[in-house]
Structures are given as C-alpha cells and as structure tokens.
Write a structure and sequence with these properties.
Blueprint: H1 2-6, H2 13-29, H3 39-52, H4 59-77, H5 79-88, H6 93-96
Helix pairs in contact: 2-4, 3-5, 4-5
C-alpha cells in the first residue's frame, strides 16, 4: 500500500488511516541503535501499543508516551510487572488493568 501511495495516487480515508496507524506503530517500536531495551520493556511497549496506540495522533506523541511516561511509570511504580514479564514470560490478567 505504501509503495502505491508513493506514486502520488490519492488514497481513500480508510487506507490513509491504516498507513498512519502503521507509521505510529513503527515509531513506537523504534529503539536506540546498539542499546536495545530489555525484553520485558519491549513486551510492555508492544502490549501498550496493542491497547492504546490508536488514541495518539502522531508518531512524536506515541514515542514520547513510550519513552517518558509508560516505561518510567512502570519502573517506578510497578517494577514487579517488569520482573513478572522477564521471569515468568507472562502478563497476568490482574496486571493488565
């Protein structure tokens, strides 16, 4: 779709929305070069993307959400969640909320 859009063809609103969503997801999943996030951080971010990325209107907001709010909040207020992800490779239903 993206290649088709690059040809200058006008896209309908649904297709454009899908491309925009893809771009937001890609932006959220980017990591610093040669300094990847620990697996538990990656899982938390991917899980949050699945639940919340649609509510953010730009990749800049999505990236800021990940970098400045989500990970820092969980690390400071719920470190046991990251330990659970790392050690048990699971997110319990009561932690999803």
């Amino acid at each position: 779709m993206e290649a088709f859009a690059s040809l200058g063809t006008e896209l309908d609103a649904a297709t454009q929305a899908q491309l925009d969503k893809r771009n937001r997801i890609v932006e959220v999943l980017k990591q610093p070069q040669s300094n990847p996030y620990p697996v538990e951080d990656q899982v938390l971010v991917i899980f949050a993307v699945a639940l919340a990325v649609d509510g953010y209107n730009s990749s800049k907001q999505s990236s800021r959400f990940r970098n400045t709010y989500l990970l820092e909040h969980v690390k400071s207020h719920h470190p046991e969640l990251l330990n659970e992800i790392r050690d048990e490779k699971n997110i319990k239903d009561d932690n999803i909320a």
